[in-house]
Amino acid sequence: MSKIAYLRVTTWKEALGYAQHYYGCIDLNNKTDDIDVRKKLTADEAKALWKHDKRRGEKKPLWKEGDRCGAFLEEQVLYKAAVKLLPEDFNALVVGMPYTLEPQPIIWAKKKFTKQKNRINALYRMAEEAGWWEEDEAKMKEICEEWEKLFEEIQNG
């Protein structure tokens, strides 16, 4: 059984000019149902979402204080909310998808896996700098071999 959960992040930021938010869903890797990341809005958050979500002709705000909402204006705030929802028996939360066989960033890991988390995040940055498989297959093979070993340590933890 895998002890790693995955945060799938979606956004309409590039697709729609007025959309400025992120959504998250925690994939528990077939352990149970996925968890949509939501929070109760403060008055300021509702106001900020309304400012970014205005639609032509609408006169009433779409959001109000106390609404449960899955829209986050900042990716880091989404990450923090996701970590709070993660069941205790998981060792790490990865931004990405299960069954991806290359480095993905880890936003949270149990303290005993801090070393592995930091190295995996460094490997992710190295893969970005290398241009992934399209630009440097030899470097990616080296990166992925190290990543797999570290990832298994966390997974089997």
Distance between the termini: 11 Å
Strand content: 15-25%
Number of strands: 7
Helix run count: 5
Secondary structure class reads alpha+beta
Q: Which sheet architecture does the biggest sheet show?
A: 5 strands, mixed
Q: Give the low-pLDDT segments.
A: none
Mass-distribution shape: globular
The SSE order reads EEEEHEHEEHHH
pLDDT average, as an integer? Answer: 88
Q: How many domains is the backbone divided into?
A: 2
What can you see in these coordinates?
The mean pLDDT is 88. The radius of gyration is 18 Å and the shape is globular. A five-stranded mixed β-sheet has the order 3-2-1-6-7. The chain starts with a strand and ends with a helix. The longest helix has 20 residues, at 137-156. Helix 3 packs antiparallel against helix 5 (137-156). The chain is built from five helices and seven strands, in the order ββββαβαββααα. It folds into two domains: 1-97, no CATH class; 101-157, no CATH class. It is an alpha+beta fold.
Please provide a brief summary of the model.
This protein is of the alpha+beta class and 157 residues long.
List keywords for this structure.
157 residues; alpha+beta; 2 domains; five-stranded mixed β-sheet; two-stranded antiparallel ribbon; 5 helices; 7 strands; globular
Write the layout of secondary structure elements.
Blueprint lengths: L3 E8 L10 E6 L7 E2 L2 E2 L2 H11 L14 E2 L5 H11 L6 E4 L10 E4 L4 H17 L1 H4 L1 H20 L1
Parallel strand pairs: 1-6
Antiparallel strand pairs: 1-2, 2-3, 4-5, 6-7
